[in-house]
Design a protein that fits this description.
The chain is mainly beta. It has a single domain (12-121), classed as Sandwich (Immunoglobulin-like), CATH 2.60.40.420. The protein has a five-stranded mixed β-sheet with strand order 1-7-6-3-4, with no helix packed on it. A two-stranded antiparallel sheet has the order 2-5. The protein has helices at 33-36, 48-55; strands at residues 12-15, 20-26, 41-44, 74-75, 84-90, 100-103, 115-121. It contains two helices and seven strands; from the N terminus they run ββαβαββββ.
Length: 122
């Protein structure tokens, strides 16, 4: 992600046979995390809007995410331009019958193009 309201990646495929999956995430822009920060949040597609709404009042110090929300399957902290972070999650959290999305929880990013489908590959 850079200094825009979208991600550079258009989809992620998680191999069904791997036990853990790591996402390495880089903010390629120049803006600070409080100016236009980005993070990577994984959830069921049907939960994204509710997570974003519940997280908005939590503020930057909580990555605009509701505390201890079980709907958040994995996430990184919000980072600013030039920074890198990562997260690893167990793929057993995913069900091939469900639809998943990764999104950015920073303010209104969730409601722009900062949503990308996550697929479970055969």
């Amino acid at each position: 992600a850079g200094d825009s309201w979208s991600y550079n990646t258009k989809t992620i495929s998680v191999p069904a046979d791997c036990e853990e999956f790591t996402v390495n995430f880089t903010h390629t822009g120049k803006l600070s995390k409080d100016g236009l920060g980005h993070n990577w949040v994984l959830a069921k597609t049907s939960d994204v809007n509710a997570i974003a709404q519940a997280g908005a009042p939590e503020g930057l110090e909580n990555d605009f995410l509701p505390k201890d929300d079980k709907r958040v399957l994995a996430h990184t902290p919000i980072i600013g331009g030039g920074e890198t972070t990562s997260t690893t999650f167990k793929t057993s959290l995913l069900d091939a019958r469900e639809n998943y999305t990764f999104f950015c929880s920073f303010l209104a990013n969730t409601f722009y193009d900062a949503r990308v489908p996550v697929k479970i590959a055969d």
